[in-house]
Amino acid sequence: QVQLVESGGGLVQARGSLRLSCAASGRTFSNYAMGWFRQAPGKEREFVASISYNGVSTYYGDSMEGRFSISRDNGQNTVYLQMNSLIPEDTAVYYCAGGRTSNTGWSPSEYGYWGQGTQVTVSS
């Protein structure tokens, strides 16, 4: 079965950086888009970023553009999320998501597989 395992979360001070990783297994990773979402306590799941199957196309949520960068290594079956200039409002559980198709998407319904999540906490 498809498995997605996130790592790299933690506690960071405002204006700091973190890089999240998501290791995928169980299907041909290079055939599908991948995404990152986040969910803060009491809030709905929010789109963060997505990347096409070949890494050519990327798409970001409004508040992440210019601060976050998504990338993938199809040889390592891994997708990354580089987060810079973090602010306390970025505090959330971050989820890796496996797409249903090869194209990027912003809606959770476009993703059929989810990791367990990794906590990111940004202190002021």
Give an account of the 3D structure.
Helix content is 0%, strand content 50%. The protein has no helices and 11 strands. Strands 2, 4, 5, 6, 9, 10 and 11 form a 7-stranded mixed β-sheet that branches. The radius of gyration is 13 Å and the shape is globular. The N and C termini lie far apart (40 Å). The model has no long low-confidence stretch (mean pLDDT 96).
Q: Which helices and strands, and how do they pair?
A:
Elements: E1 3-7, E2 10-13, E3 18-25, E4 34-39, E5 46-51, E6 58-60, E7 68-73, E8 78-83, E9 92-99, E10 111-114, E11 118-123
Parallel strand pairs: 2-11
Antiparallel strand pairs: 1-3, 3-8, 4-5, 4-9, 5-6, 7-8, 9-10, 9-11
| Rg measurement, Å | 13 Å
Helix fraction, binned, reads under 10%
Share in β-strands: over 45%
Instruction: Tell me, briefly, the overall form.
Output: globular
Number of helices: 0
Q: How many strands, what sense, and barrel or not for the largest sheet?
A: 7 strands, mixed
Give the integer mean of the pLDDT values: 96
**Poorly predicted runs:** none
Number of distinct beta strands: 11
What structural category characterises the helix and strand content?
mainly beta
Distance between the termini: 40 Å
State the order of secondary-structure elements, H for helix, E for strand: EEEEEEEEEEE
